[in-house]
Amino acid sequence: MGRVILHCDLNNFYASVECLYNPEIREKPVAVCGSQSTRHGIVLAKNMYAKNCGVKTAEPVWQAKKKCPELVVVPPNYSLYLKFSNDVREILLRYTDLVEAFGIDESWMDVTESTKLFGDGLKIAESIKERIKSELGITASIGVSFNKIFAKLGSDIKKPDAITYISEENYKKVVWDLPVQELLYVGKSTLEKLNKFAIYTIGDLANSSPKFLSKQLGKWGETLWEFANGYDASPVVPAAFEPVIKGIGNSLTTPRDLTNNNDVKLLMYVLAESVARRLRAHNLKGRTIQVWVRAHDLETFEKQGPLQNYTYVSTEIAEKAYEIFTGFWKWEKNIRAVGIRVTNLAEADNNVQLSFLEDDTRQKKEIVEQCIDSIRKRFGYYSVQRAFLLTDSVLNTNIKNVNGFESASYFNLLR
Predict the structure, then answer these.
(1) Confidence at residue 406, expressed as pLDDT on a 0 to 100 scale
(2) Would you call 154 helix, strand, or coil by DSSP?
(3) I need a labelling partner for 320 at 20 to 30 A (CA). Which of 39, 106, 128, 131 fits?
(4) Given 106, 273, 316, 369, the catalytic residue
């Protein structure tokens, strides 16, 4: 018997929870949005009424209101969403212990063995869907398939409150005519490359040469070809499994647009301190620096480059990030957000080959940063700061959001 994989996607999750708790707005277009005062004013989620007005996730609030003047905007309540997410998880665990979260509102389930108790995948999906609706008051769309990629695709095909079955017999008919960007992990950059070679549908991708795709996209090209042909064999990984951290990073939306290199350089040091501190906390060093930039029109760019040695020193991370940035950014647009990620990680206490020919001060830098960690732990983060960070009082106000609290993100890259 083949695998039976489900993907459960909660419909318009944030907005559905808000409407559940506020009956007055249930029949109105509603969008959950970030704070405009901190320039996070984008649509995080919307209900079906707002969607029918053309409101899209991730677009600015002003743009959403232009499309839908009667739009009701509510701030996010993450603690409430987390509660509902945990409640949904408890329902899923009634059917199998093989449940893998994919964000706060999505989960994969391997119910292969559970079919002996609860019936086939469609019966299990129907039971789960109805329990979520009756017990929690929200709806879910569920994809049922023989692998994770198609199960995820199934939950996206038909919404809301629906079930889509993609089998080994029907997947070509159901999947191959869909736009190639519907396939998981086909992002904007990959889509542009595929379209360049007249690959517009998932079927076009499936019928392409894997060698050609590998030549154009690297190893990832062959992986996408396997996904399109239903060859995904990745397991559903339960929550008890702790994945290896493959990257640590942080990003920051600034209180004003960045307009010159000096602005960006200041933010690079802010972010590098945050990332380096977390590397040291995990006893890790990295050798590849990735720089992420979002322009004022929300277009994003990402570049990376290697370091000569593994490091968790903030100065080395910031200097390399700034070097990467100045190498590709030509200031045709102002910038509203910057991010740094360190990848290609190794344990920090591995043996290191020292140089006899260079004035290697790396060990001294590491000792200095470890001492700074100790001082900040005892006397607070602001007991030691770089003088450079005090040159711009406006941008400096956001340092607290990156280094002063534990709100910074860990970036776990694709396994």
Answers:
(1) 35
(2) helix
(3) 39
(4) 106
